[in-house]
Amino acid sequence: MEYTFHDFKKEALTQELIESWLKKVSLDVLINRKGTTWRLLSDAEKNLALDKKGAIELMIAKPSVIKRPVIVKASKLTLGFDIDIYHSELS
Question: Of the CATH numbers 3.40.190.290, 3.60.21.10, 3.40.50.2000, 3.40.30.10, which one belongs to the domain with range 15-89?
Answer without folding.
Answer: 3.40.30.10
